[in-house]
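writing this on my phone so excuse typos. first protein, seq and then structure
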Amino acid sequence: KILTANASSGAAISEATTTPGAGHSFEAPGTPVRLTIPAIGVDANIQSVGLSWKGTGDMGIPTNFTDVGWYNQGPRPGMPGSAVIDGHLDGKDVKEAVFYNLDRLKPGDRVAVTDKAGNISEFRVTETKVYDQDAATTEIFSTDASKTRLNLITCSGSWDKQAKLYDKRIVVFTELVTQD
């Protein structure tokens, strides 16, 4: 199961508002298709997700336990602002899903996103935080265009049988290092 951040509390932005102004050489990255995190053995397809079908304002989740989901109502990974990717921790019949070891990432670890054209944006982990399930998510989805970030989310904490979700979420914050 995965507990995602509430995406509606963060501002979605368009490409037009994130492209740097005159004097910059910038080509917006294409649609993200692959996420690799060597430190924890992740090599996953990226699904494009919006808001959850449940109407709660939560970010959608990937349809399986091996792929991750990119929040398509925010920036693409490699664009200024905060791109967000979520993935499952586990599942009913899946002991270890794609982000099972996300909590093992440490500052300096590398994360790479490949877009549809084969271009790679590489990010460096800066910090990891644990949030309560109902905590505000503005920091996760913030769209500060002065930095290029990728934030990774999965479940954490204890399983609440009645609510059918975990009581915490782990968020790994990263910043862009290189882009080709």
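second protein below, same order as before
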Amino acid sequence: MPVAITRIVLLTGKSEGTPLSIELLRYNPSLDITVAHDHSDLAQAAKKIDDSTRLISFCTSVIVPRETLEALPGPAYNFHPGPPERPGRYPSIFALYDHATQFGLTVHEMAPSVDSGHIVNAEWFDIPDGCDLIELESRTLIRLITVFRTLAPYLARFSLPLPHQNIHWQGRKTTQADCDGLCRVTPGMSAKESERRRRACGTYLAKVN
């Protein structure tokens, strides 16, 4: 008999923690939800993992240690702000730089290797003409929240794993260093390349220049 979920560790940003928690509590009001924002929070929350705990990661760059994943009784799930063909950091920046016409999101089981676990949900949408980084990330977040709401009744109550989809990760896994390198504009760069990077990197450009 599957063990009911009684505790959730929600790894996410400060602005997302409360609304996502409220959504989960709608379907299981007795849930004990611990919101973790960084590695320190996660380490403290991991000390209380038991056989009724689930870990959900939502749009965060915090990497969950192998030992934490192995301590959980079942799969942890990550809501990744990019489609399966764009694993890794800042997928939206690389999509815009590549002049991609589509983007999307991926929900997957977490594995020790980032963005490699079995996919349980993926969606795609068209990138509108003239879309910049702020708009693309906003559109992606709205869709991620919609998918979270769809899965919340199951995630909040049932410990059995979500069904795997016949969809697989593809493409190069981008890193923080890749992004830092892309989001630099140098004096000798052509105007066309400079503009391409400015559109893709948006406000992130100022952080590395």
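The first strand starts at residue 7 and ends at 12. thats all i got for now
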